[in-house]
Amino acid sequence: MVDALVKGDASGWDHSLAGTFMFTAPDGSTQTKAEWMADFKNGALKMASSQNDDIKVQQYGNAAVVTYRSTDHGTYNGKDISGQYRWTDVFVKHNGQWQVVSTQGTHITPPAAMSNK
């Protein structure tokens, strides 16, 4: 999925997201699968690179919760969104295939920036 994100391969995402997929962005806005896919296909979201680490998976039968950190370089609607994020993805196994039903991201704020608030 990360490779498809950086390559701009919408088909790789279309199969991985459930029809009921809901995205909660780091700014608190939400998007349905159709809205997220439209942004991906029309170039509003452009990722130069994305690396995931600190991946943890907890499986509960046909559901799984995946948490991880990403280090991203990219833009959304022309605005730089580069930085580190914490993500929580919820997967459900449907007809033998794992699909993402929900994703929520939080921007990791550097400690120095937090102390200035």
The unreliable regions are none
- Average residue-wise pLDDT: 92
Number of helices: 4
CATH class: Alpha Beta
Task: Kindly report the CATH topology.
Answer: Nuclear Transport Factor 2, Chain: A
Give the % helix. 10-25%
Round the Cα radius of gyration to an integer and report it: 15 Å
Structural class: alpha+beta
Instruction: Give the name of the CATH architecture.
Output: Roll
The secondary-structure element order is HHEEHEEEEEH
Report, as a whole number of angstroms, the end-to-end distance.
Answer: 35 Å
Number of strands: 7
Instruction: Kindly give the count of domains.
Output: 1
- What is the overall shape? globular
For the report, how would you describe the main beta sheet? 7 strands, mixed
Fraction of residues in β-strands: over 45%
Structural summary, described in words:
The chain is an alpha+beta fold and 117 residues long. It has one domain (2-115): Nuclear Transport Factor 2, Chain: A, CATH 3.10.450.50. The protein is built from four helices and seven strands; from the N terminus they run ααββαβββββα. The protein has helices at 2-7, 10-14, 33-41, 111-115; strands at residues 17-24, 30-32, 45-60, 63-76, 79-80, 83-94, 97-107. Strands 1, 2, 3, 4, 5, 6 and 7 form a seven-stranded mixed β-sheet that branches. The mean pLDDT is 92.
